[in-house]
Structures are given as structure tokens and as C-alpha cells.
Amino acid sequence: MLLRALLLLVIHGFVVVSGASCGCSSVTIPVHVDVLVPKNTSDIFGGLKSNLTDLRRVNDTYDIHGVFCRPNVPSRNADVLQLLVHGFSYTSQYWSPPVEEFQNYSYSAFSCDRGLSSLAIDLVGSGLSSRPKDPADVQFPTGAATLSQLARHLKEAAILPGVQRFRKIIGVGHSLGSGLFNFGAIVDGAQSPFDALVLTGELILDPNGPPLGSGTSAALIPARDSEPLRWAALDPGYFTVNDRTAFYPANTTAFSPRMLLFDELTKDVGTVSTFVQLPISSLPAEHYRGAVAKVVGSEDQGFCGNSRCVEAAALAEAERVVWPAARSFELVVSQGSGHDMNLDFAAEKAFSIIFSFVAKFSR
Ligand SMILES: *[C@@H]1O[C@H](CO)[C@@H](O)[C@H](O)[C@H]1NC(C)=O
Ligand SMILES: *[C@@H]1O[C@H](CO)[C@@H](O)[C@H](O)[C@H]1NC(C)=O
Ligand SMILES: *[C@@H]1O[C@H](CO)[C@@H](O)[C@H](O)[C@H]1NC(C)=O
Ligand SMILES: *[C@@H]1O[C@H](CO)[C@@H](O)[C@H](O)[C@H]1NC(C)=O
Ligand SMILES: *[C@@H]1O[C@H](CO)[C@@H](O)[C@H](O)[C@H]1NC(C)=O
Question: What is the pLDDT of residues 277-306, one digit of tens each?
Fold first, then answer.
């Protein structure tokens, strides 16, 4: 039964979940980016440390698909938007799994019910957004520029007729999404269109350390080998993650096995660059002036597997150093949460933490 319902979902793309107090609609926004990307797609710093001769230009316009949710009732924060950005091999559905059984796991609904609008997008290359023919075009500079350009656009023009322009945009990322906001903060500095950032499921990675995911079951596989029915025609440079258990707490009583099944069936794709360029978070965002908060799950197998998250205060001090100009920096370890903190039984706790940061930064 669940399997059939899920397959229908996959075929039809997506369903928008919305509560009584909240209205959601699907939007597609063309975004122009003009960036330099490293010729070497395995360059872990995404070209930030490269000479010009090692870079090439990507100048393109992408259709960015998203789900926009806003309260139906008047809200004090009607001019604030949360831009929600998913992690590697996920889509906008991470913020609102489109199945009735999982309505409880919708951060879009949670925050909308409490008066805050959100736009959950599919990254370039993922979900229903443009997927460039050449996967080498999809790197950190491309993804980050897409987010910044989109935010600038949404401060200048109404997202939908009858909706006011946004005065404040708060970036809320998960994993790769957090990394892209981080890259944008380094590149844009004081000119960043993001008034604040809430970065979940991402910590500083030692560029010389073992790659992310080593020691867990997570591994990249060409998408077309993983799911020929869905992706036979896709360039082998687009990858997915087959075994997704590492995204959940190691203790299997901490999440629903049906959520893991849903996750497997709705998994999406990304490129090698957007996986290996995550150590970008170890470089300082020297000129970013907004407020920054990080939220990480105590049971995050990739980032907290080495007891690193046990001493939250020490972790906060270590993470603060790459945000020297930020208005404020805070870090919370969500106890019991895994890497995909939105999808396990501690989701509501994670939502409360994320929302309280956004609410504070909205003032
Ligand atoms: C590309 O970058 C990676 C990581 O920095 C490096 O190990 C590799 O040798 C580089 N490849 C080329 C062809 O320069
Ligand atoms: C950049 O170019 C200079 C001068 O040619 C060279 O000395 C340096 O090693 C290069 N840096 C990188 C990261 O390739
Ligand atoms: C970059 O793209 C824009 C929009 O498609 C186009 O107008 C412009 O000519 C391009 N620039 C270059 C140098 O190719
Ligand atoms: C998993 O969590 C449950 C519930 O908290 C607990 O009873 C059980 O001992 C845990 N299992 C392991 C292997 O830690
Ligand atoms: C689901 O919603 C119910 C009722 O609001 C709540 O008690 C429960 O904690 C929620 N569960 C999760 C996993 O969020």
C-alpha cells in the first residue's frame, strides 16, 4: 500500500502539504548565474584557492522549482522569508514529505503555523529544477550563486501576485544546503542578501581528514546504475547515495522504518563536486555580517560519530572561529537527532530549535 502510494508520488512529482492556516503553491523562478568554477571538479575548495587559469566560466539561466508556503492569517513577519535548502541527493521534499502519514515531519508546516513563510527549493541539478547537461557545471560556486541571486530577486520582486516583497531573507540549510550558504557567505561577504543563516547538519570538515561518510555505509553511486528505471539516460556524472541509513541515528528505534523506505524511494541526485566541496566550511567567512546559528544532531553519524558533539560549548567555540564578523554565532546540539534531523522521531525538537533561531533573527 505505502509502496504504491509512494511510487505514484514519484511519478507525479510532488504533492503540496498544507494545513488549514497555511497556503502552499508550487513556483518556478528563472535564475541567472555567471560564475567561475574549477576545471578540476574534485577541487575541495570549489575554486576559491585556484588561479584564474584553473577556472572556467559558467554563464547560464536555470529554472529553480520550489514550494512556497505562507500563513493565511495576517502575520507580524509577513515580510520575512525562510529559504529552505536541502542536502545532497534530497529535494525540497526534505522540508515537507508529501505523504499524509508524514505531515508531522513538515518544517514548512511547523513554521507556517507559527507565522513564518518559506520557500523550499530544489537545487540546480536536483528535483524539478534545471539539470545541466554537463554535471561539471554543477559545483559549489554555481549552487551558491543560484541561492544568492534568487534571494536578491525575491527582495526586488514579488514571488507571486498579491504577495509583498521580502525585506528579510533567512537562509535555512541542511547539510549540502548549509555548505552552499557557507560558500555564499565567503564569496558575498557584507553584500550577502541573507540577513541571517541557520545551518543544520553541517560542521567544519578537516580538508586533510577522511572524506565525509567514511566509516559509515553511505557511498556515492552513479544514479543510472542505482535506479535504471528512473535515470538510465542520465550522465554518469550525476550520483546518488544508495544506502541511506547513515543519515539516521544508529539506534533504529529512533526513527520510523517507513520513513527510511520513503527516503529510499524518493532519493534524488547530485554531482561529485557538490559532495567533495563540503570542506569549504573550514574556510573563514571573513566579511559576512549576519547572524549565524548551527544545529547538529547528537546522533549524526557523519559529523558527530567521533564524540565531537558531546561538549556543545567546546564545539561552538571551534565553529565560531570561521565567522569572525558575524553579528552573533550560536550552536545547539539537538539531543537524539540524526543527520536528517527533520526525518526522525526527534524532528519536533529539531523544528523548535530551528524555528526559535529564525524567529529571533526575524525581529
Ligand atoms: C584535483 O583536485 C584533487 C583535490 O584537490 C587532487 O587530489 C587532484 O590531483 C586534482 N586533479 C588534477 C588533475 O589536478
Ligand atoms: C598560481 O600561480 C602561481 C604563479 O604561476 C604559482 O606559483 C602558484 O603555485 C599557483 N597556485 C595554484 C594554487 O595553482
Ligand atoms: C551571459 O549570459 C547572458 C544571459 O544569457 C547573456 O546575455 C550574456 O551575453 C552572456 N555573457 C557572455 C560573456 O557570454
Ligand atoms: C535504542 O534506544 C532505545 C530507546 O531509547 C533503548 O531502549 C535501547 O537500549 C537503545 N539501543 C541501543 C543499542 O543503544
Ligand atoms: C506528531 O504530532 C503529534 C501531535 O501533534 C505529536 O504529539 C508528536 O510528537 C509528533 N511526532 C513527531 C515525530 O513529530
Answer: 999 989 999 999 999 999 999 999 999 988
The 3-state DSSP class for residue 349 equals helix
Task: Return the DSSP state at 123.
Answer: P
pTM of the model: 0.93
CA of 58, nearest ligand number: 3
- Under 8 Å between Cβ of 159 and 305: no
* Plot region of 149 (φ>0 → left; ψ -120 to 50 → alpha; else → beta): alpha
Rounded Cα distance between 135 and 235, Å, is 7
Residue nearest to atom 13 of ligand 3 (CA): 59
Taking the centre of ligand 4 as the mean of its atom positions, its distance from the CA of residue 250, in whole angstroms, is 10
C-alpha to C-alpha distance for 357 and 239, rounded to whole angstroms = 33
- Ligand 3 centroid distance, CA of 234 (Å): 26
Q: For position 20, what pLDDT does the model report?
A: 63
Check if the beta carbon of residue 123 is closer than 8 Å to that of residue 146: yes
- Report pLDDT digits (tens) over 40-91: 999 999 999 999 999 999 999 999 999 999 999 888 999 999 999 999 999 9
In this predicted model, what pLDDT tens digit does every residue of 124-149 receive, in sequence order? 999 999 999 999 999 999 999 999 99
CA 32/CA 229 separation, integer angstroms: 32
* Cβ contact 325:134 at 8 Å: no
Dmax over CA atoms of the chain, in Å, equals 55
The finding on whether 252 has its CB within 6 A of some atom of ligand 4 is no
Q: Would you tell me how many other CB atoms lie within 10 Å of the CB of residue 92?
A: 27
Which cell numbers in the block locate residue 276? 567533495
Question: pLDDT tens for residues 185-212?
Answer: 999 999 999 999 999 999 999 877 777 7
In eight-state DSSP terms, residue 321 is: T
